DNA sequence: AACAAGACCTGCATGC
DNA sequence: TGCATGCAGGTCTTGT
């Protein structure tokens, strides 16, 4: 599922390939994904030049020279493919296809259709619903001070806190699990109990986990140009995600006594963590795991 | 207001 | 083999 590093990698690839080219033809092969695709799409971008590719959180922003921005969210199964002639046959879940002045074909493929397309005036970007309340990017300056303030009086789980795009943009289930692991913080503790030192450690871990993923994504960029555009999780090895019952990779917890990596449900999402390494700060106020 | 849970959707793994 | 079931997750909506 595309989180910030995947979206960032896709944006970098698209930026190399698309900036300066025109959309010579574009078709939507269904009227809606998660939401209806606007009537004005793709009419308004035909024969328009792509000026810039940007990212905000998990959203791709395709900025056109005519002051319009196409907003793309990949949902959970969305992929962007770039084909050379002769174009392969359109597949079942290829919902939007565009031909470019470079001769290439851009395809949006999304089996689960949780993604969406929108088109707005570029000047309306900041007031756009999804961005108006969106929290800062993980690499923004002053993130530590901001998170410390934002976490005061918060009584939800730390896991939910970090998944909330209004708190911090771009993190999804996998990267939250991994970041919490590397900062030794329990997913079930309350944000309000975080100390400044905890926040420092957390921010460091978030950035490190994201940077590593972006770096391994960068090495797959060449594939993005030439093959099927598949940008998964870059053959990444997670420390805890998906490793229920396995031994914690970096602490000396006894797997016989601790059952290794635990899997619990939080807000309907799977959380993976090492209960030995990831201590709850202020045990008495921690939320009960479900 | 804050938080949790449900709905959306399809492909895949598992079990019978 | 083939069917039924459960699970995965990002965001919005609904419920508490």
* Helical proportion, percent range: 25-40%
| Number of beta strands | 10
Low-pLDDT parts are 220-234
Biggest sheet record: 4 strands, antiparallel
Averaged pLDDT, please?
86
State the end-to-end distance.
24 Å
Secondary-structure-based class equals alpha+beta
**How many DSSP helices?**
8
What sequence of helices (H) and strands (E) makes up the elements? HEEEEEEEEHHHHHHHEE
Lateral strand order in the biggest sheet: 1-6-7-5
Q: Name the overall outline.
A: elongated
What's the gyration radius in Å?
A: 21 Å
Percent of residues in beta strands: 15-25%
Description of the molecule:
This protein has 290 residues and is of the alpha+beta class. Helices cover 27% and strands 20% of the residues. It has eight helices and ten strands. It has helices at 4-18, 129-132, 143-151, 158-163, 173-182, 196-218, 221-226, 255-258, and strands spanning 23-28, 50-56, 59-64, 68-73, 79-83, 94-100, 105-109, 116-121, 262-266, 269-273. The strands form three sheets. The chain has a four-stranded antiparallel beta sheet with strand order 1-6-7-5. It has a four-stranded antiparallel beta sheet with strand order 2-3-4-8, with helices on one face. The protein has a two-stranded antiparallel ribbon with strand order 9-10. Strand 9 (262-266) and strand 10 (269-273) form a beta hairpin. The radius of gyration is 21 Å and the shape is elongated. The model is unreliable at 220-234 (pLDDT under 50). It binds a DNA duplex (16 and 16 nucleotides) through loops.
Record keyword descriptors for this entry.
single chain, 290 residues, four-stranded antiparallel β-sheet, 8 helices, DNA-binding
